[in-house]
């Protein structure tokens, strides 16, 4: 969910090719299907209607159908290139009848009240600056008793970012609106969510990112450079080096979130 609808896409075809080379076919965030499974662990998805906010190029949306037996999954994103890629992926796998993809500009979610059993999101909510409005919308479209399960990139505090964090965010060049886990949890509770839980994933991603950087500098470099150009890979190596600093310091806090919409 990117808040720059009139600008050039932040996740264009080059970005999609690069990230999928690093993270897997259909995945624009780290951890692949294993991390998706961790986010939804213990949530009953079989036969359920799910919304995937910030669905990217559709790998997660289809995984929720194929691995978890969802009845129907709607992938939602504000950027056209990723939605087009997701639709093509669903058609190629014969899943267009159970997966649909919606692309609209930022703003209120284009779904009616109490539409979904589960709302899922992976590393997309950091692009939305108004966390209170975001969770009010997620709460609205969940059915009573429905579950919100997500991961997101966060900052460890809500004060002035460190110089290293500013360097990292500038290197990403994306519309990051990072906030602390405490701020996210408070916004969820204000929206009405119960059983709000927060799980720190910094120790996991700190090591995974180190391996990603090693692969980018080593065995992946020739293949990815051939696909997107050496200059693009070199830029992202510098971004990963900046990210590693704030992961190691603990200021960059990938985090899982979970909450439930009460019944009645």
UniProtKB/TrEMBL annotation:
UniProt KW keywords: Methyltransferase, Transferase
The keyword Transferase is assigned to this record: yes
Gene3D superfamilies documented for this protein: Vaccinia Virus protein VP39
Single GO MF annotation: methyltransferase activity
Any one GO BP annotation for this protein: methylation
SMART domains, per the entry: PKS_MT
The keyword Endoplasmic reticulum appears for this protein: no
InterPro entries (alphabetical): MeTfrase_dom (IPR020803), Methyltransf_25 (IPR041698), SAM-dependent_MTases_sf (IPR029063)
Pathway it works in: Lipid metabolism; Phospholipid metabolism
Catalytic activity from the UniProt record: phosphoethanolamine + S-adenosyl-L-methionine = N-methylethanolamine phosphate + S-adenosyl-L-homocysteine + H(+)
Xref: Pfam families: Methyltransf_25
PANTHER family in alphabetical order: PHOSPHOETHANOLAMINE METHYLTRANSFERASE, PHOSPHOETHANOLAMINE METHYLTRANSFERASE ISOFORM X1
Protein known as: Methyltransferase type 11
Organism expressing this protein natively: Mesorhizobium escarrei
């Amino acid at each position: 969910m990117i808040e720059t609808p009139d600008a050039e896409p932040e996740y264009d075809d080059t970005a999609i090719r690069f990230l999928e080379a690093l993270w897997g076919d259909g995945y624009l965030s780290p951890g692949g299907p294993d991390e998706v499974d961790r986010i939804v662990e213990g949530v009953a998805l079989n036969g359920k209607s799910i919304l995937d906010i910030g669905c990217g190029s559709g790998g997660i949306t289809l995984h929720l159908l194929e691995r978890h037996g969802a009845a129907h999954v709607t992938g939602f994103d504000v950027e056209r290139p990723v939605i087009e890629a997701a639709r093509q992926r669903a058609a190629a796998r014969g899943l267009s009848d159970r997966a649909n993809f919606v692309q609209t500009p930022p703003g209120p979610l284009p779904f009616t009240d109490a539409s979904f059993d589960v709302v899922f999101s992976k590393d997309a909510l950091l692009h939305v600056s108004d966390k209170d409005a975001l969770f009010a919308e997620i709460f609205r479209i969940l059915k009573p008793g429905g579950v919100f399960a997500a991961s997101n990139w966060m900052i460890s505090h809500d004060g002035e970012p460190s110089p290293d964090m500013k360097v990292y965010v500038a290197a990403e060049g994306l519309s990051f609106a990072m906030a602390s886990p405490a701020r996210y949890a408070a916004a969820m509770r204000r929206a009405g969510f119960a059983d709000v839980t927060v799980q720190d994933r910094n120790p996991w991603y700190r090591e995974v990112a180190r391996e990603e950087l090693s692969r980018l500098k080593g065995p992946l470099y020739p293949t990815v450079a051939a696909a997107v150009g050496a200059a693009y890979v070199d830029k992202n190596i510098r971004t990963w080096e900046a990210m590693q600093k704030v992961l190691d310091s603990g200021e960059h806090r990938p985090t899982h979130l979970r909450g439930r919409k009460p019944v009645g």
